[in-house]
Amino acid sequence: MRDAAWPSGVYLAEFANADRFREALVRLREKGYTRLETYTPFPVPGTDGPLGLPRSRLPVAIFVIGLLGAIAAYAIQWYANAQSYPLNIGGRPPHAIPAFIVSTFEGTVLAASLAAFFGLFVVLRLPRLWHPVFEVDGFERATVDRFWIAIDARDRRSDAAMTARELDALGALRVVHLEQA
Amino acid sequence: MRAPARAALATDAELTPAERDRLLLRGAAADRATAYVALADHLLASIWTRSLVWWLLFGIAGLLSLLLVVAITYTVAVGIGTWGNNIPVAWAFAITDFVWWIGIGHAGTFISAFLLLLNQKWRASINRVAEAMTLFALVQAGLFPVLHLGRPWFAYWLIPYPATMGVWPNFKSSLPWDVAAVSTYFTVSLLFWYLGLVPDLASARDRVKGRARRMVYGVFALGWRGSGFEWQRYRVAYTILGGLATPLVISVHSVVSLDFSIAQLPGWHSTIFPPYFVVGAIYSGFAMVLLLLLPLRHAFGLQDVITEKHLENIAKLTLTTGLMLAYSYVMESFMAWYSGDLYERYMYLFARPLGPYAVVYWIMTLLNVATPQIFWWRRCRRSPVILFLASLGILAGMWLERFEIIVSSLNRDFLSSSWHFYFPTWVDLSLLAGSIGFFGLLFLLFVRYVPPVAISEVQELRYTLAHRSSEEAEHA
Fold it and tell me: What is the interface pTM, i.e. ipTM, of the complex?
């Protein structure tokens, strides 16, 4: 988790305008900041690059679990109808491959969907009751109409006076410094 | 242990007057430029607005739901002999209701998943309502087959588990396929709906007044804060979930149709059934989406979010699926004649159009085939009143279609001495009316407690559109 903890503190800058926010983010990246995080009411296009997020491995996990779901669904049907309790219905074979396809498909979709949903929350470390940013007055507008940039104080370029000044110069409404979070 | 975080705010006191002026100017200009807060409040308004109409509708839906409870209790206590069905019409109202409700659900998944993958941005303002509709329709649908078991308290026998009895469900039958398809569909719809809701629940948490409500929304928002990392991973998971839900649009009603087409009964035993059922399902679902959107849009003044363009698009899709359905009707009868089979020909060319349920057949054909034709006219596609009435017609028509397929095929058995005219009892009618009431009840609660329009998606759409228009202005 990128914003799980800021042991040395964090600078939070509030922006009122999505374009100015995006431009500020790009400029900060150009200046050499790397430990950046954003908080926005909607995913602002063109911010993934400056944040330098690694490619998600979630799709691979979903694929593997979906495959396991398919195998499990087929295995249950095979065991139940061909091994444990074979019934002769109209002379059809107990191991009836075409008849097992439907439930196998459903098993795949079900397992993969559960993996996508719960996998996401594992990756995001959610649910959580508290986060340092919730202590900032006015931060609640990050889910409504304000755009925030967070700079980890451990960032190599970070410097108490300079970072705040730079954020201000980029058009931040205000800069908040959390000393320890 | 909560880490004591001290917010060292750059308060007004630390600023020079010049700086403060600059700050205020920036804030004011920014607020003018982005009216996102107004948009969010507008879209959240339904969850803090109280209205008399809502209570009135809630009362009606509540009474009908009580009727449902009475009918279910009576059915379970006395048995399904209280229903009108009997041999040879072993399936009637309950299965009709089941197929009808499942079908209605399909439009929600179509709008939220299919259109998501096709990058149809206009879905943003209607997908939440459509998904909720799917979920609540599936709740109703699930009631009927379970009650139809006769001993619903043994419903868990449908699940393959290592029972001490040593027996298993027979997966060569199409009925356990139904269980797998419908339960998967419900689960995936629920996950998809909730995942879409999380950012909006966070908005609700941060906007509602009162500590108790903030805490409830806070718990359901799971601690969402809209970080860049969260958004990026969220979109990955949401798109994949959409991709997984998409085949369900096609598969679920196909599986439901197999309940019929696998049986060797004229009127059921037909290869056209899976696509025919899916098309009918999406068709009836769009009608239900319109039926719910139109009053919602009017009640909360959402005309600028759910625009006439949205209504027109849904009307066009309704027309398209309506034409596909009409084609299915024609092909069904043509294939019966072309097969040369005596019983097929009798069922499609005599028993249905001229038999005991001929009235149902002709009303159904009129409603389903004729109603959508008005959508060739632009004015009809954009008029809320006409759309509302047309939706009612289509929903009634689709219910009658399910009834026609099920009952008219069964009531004239191969042996004419066992022919039987089916008529529903008050319990059958109460279950149908009650399920409609319960559906309405759930929907009213949804409108009251959950943001009915996807706020973050509409905001993103607004941002994208604003950008596109400014870029176009630059190029011009």
Answer: 0.94
